[in-house]
Amino acid sequence: MTQSEGKPRVVLGVSGGIAAYKACELLRRLTESGHDVRPVPTASALRFVGAPTWAALSGHPVATEVWESVEDVPHVRIGKEADLVVVAPATADLLARAAHGLAGDLLTNTLLTARCPVVFAPAMHTEMWEHPATRENVATLRRRGALVIEPATGRLTGVDTGKGRLPDPDEIYAVCRRVLARGGSTADLAGRHVVVSAGGTREPLDPVRFLGNRSSGKQGYALAATAAARGARVTLVAANSALPGPAGVDVVPVGTALELRDAVRAAAGDADAVVMAAAVADFRPAVYAAGKIKKQDGGAEPEPLALVRNPDILAELAAARPRPGQVVAGFAAETDDVLAHGRAKLASKGCDLLVVNEVGERRTFGAEENEAVVLGADGSETPVPHGPKEALADTIWDLVAKRFPE
């Protein structure tokens, strides 16, 4: 495996599914971002995309069997030298062979010899994904430390639609980048179910107007994506966000604060952690107008708008945790005296962690970066300097993971 100087070494395994053509785009994203990528397709994969394509895109020779170039012992060397192995698509057959340690071709030999993080991106029909044998194979791989991304829901082969679609190559690339950035620490949240809320709720005034806020949902989506990249099963309750769902994340779309409350409570029943990053409206109109509210003739001022309080979802979750040891974290967006207000809010909410940040019209909302202080109920303070929202998300998960019961 010829390595370009200083480039992370990635093995791209490709198994024999129709989604193999999408792996070409993943290969392109990896090589163009400075990774040295060695494609290792199975013989079945070459029936969908030929060896010249993989060789041309990667700059590496392509082999499927251990009998090729045996003088270089590729079935051992490729896996041992890799910084990351990603298999996309990973068919039901490939997952079964990997879970049982079979070594019938170069890819399965590489998986056995790899001592780096391994990521599987499954793709198959819904019935195959839901079959007990596949579910057990996936559980086995996750228990051993592999990261198995949840497949996407959408159009499958033919006219079928359901869960089993290969996640978008850009999303798989984002997972690979996050895994490499963590220096080999991959699945520390494996076996955990986490719930994240994101976005901003909207409280309707009439059929065309609403009370809302400036939240884009980017911080909540970063929390969901980083948790999935660390092996967690993630439920993302997303309020009015146009962002694409992160790979391997179950997205539950909601609109209002009451809808978000119901969705989070439903998902939190078996969750190890709940992180409330959504900007939830404190108030909603007392009356919803069935028709569009019109301007008064003669220039008269409108009637005052009566508001009622929305429930305090974070405080409710912290007070009535359905699972012993469940960790609850929230966000506090403040415009002044940030830490003082944050400490008071932490005490009143009763949560384990509170992420406090200063917000404004041109700060945080819609931005790619954030800075905050994470306050702990134990009196701890963890400042997170200005940087990517993913970095803040990883710090939050580090602090959440420390609070899990043994």
Automatic annotation (TrEMBL):
Pathway: Cofactor biosynthesis; coenzyme A biosynthesis; CoA from (R)-pantothenate: step 3/5; Cofactor biosynthesis; coenzyme A biosynthesis; CoA from (R)-pantothenate: step 2/5. One of its GO terms (cellular component) is phosphopantothenoylcysteine decarboxylase complex. Residues 1-193 are annotated as: Phosphopantothenoylcysteine decarboxylase. Keywords: Decarboxylase, Flavoprotein, FMN, Ligase, Lyase, Magnesium, Metal-binding, Multifunctional enzyme. It catalyses: (R)-4'-phosphopantothenate + L-cysteine + CTP = N-[(R)-4-phosphopantothenoyl]-L-cysteine + CMP + diphosphate + H(+); N-[(R)-4-phosphopantothenoyl]-L-cysteine + H(+) = (R)-4'-phosphopantetheine + CO2. GO terms for molecular function: FMN binding; metal ion binding; phosphopantothenate--cysteine ligase activity; phosphopantothenoylcysteine decarboxylase activity. Binds 1 FMN per subunit. It comes from the Bacteria. One of its GO terms (biological process) is coenzyme A biosynthetic process. Residues 189-402 form the DNA/pantothenate metabolism flavoprotein C-terminal domain. Residues 194-406 are annotated as: Phosphopantothenate--cysteine ligase. Its cofactor is FMN; Mg(2+). Pfam families: DFP, Flavoprotein. Residues 9-174 form the Flavoprotein domain. CTP binds at D282, K292, P311, D312, I313, L314, F331, K345, K349. InterPro entries: CoaB-like_sf, CoaBC, DNA/pantothenate-metab_flavo_C, Flavin_trans-like, Flavoprotein. Its EC number is 4.1.1.36, 6.3.2.5. Gene3D superfamilies: CoaB-like, Flavin prenyltransferase-like. SUPFAM superfamilies: CoaB-like, Homo-oligomeric flavin-containing Cys decarboxylases, HFCD. HAMAP family: CoaBC. In the N-terminal section; belongs to the HFCD (homo-oligomeric flavin containing Cys decarboxylase) superfamily. In the C-terminal section; belongs to the PPC synthetase family. PANTHER family: HOMO-OLIGOMERIC FLAVIN CONTAINING CYS DECARBOXYLASE FAMILY, PHOSPHOPANTOTHENOYLCYSTEINE DECARBOXYLASE. Catalyzes two steps in the biosynthesis of coenzyme A. In the first step cysteine is conjugated to 4'-phosphopantothenate to form 4-phosphopantothenoylcysteine, in the latter compound is decarboxylated to form 4'-phosphopantotheine. This is Coenzyme A biosynthesis bifunctional protein CoaBC.
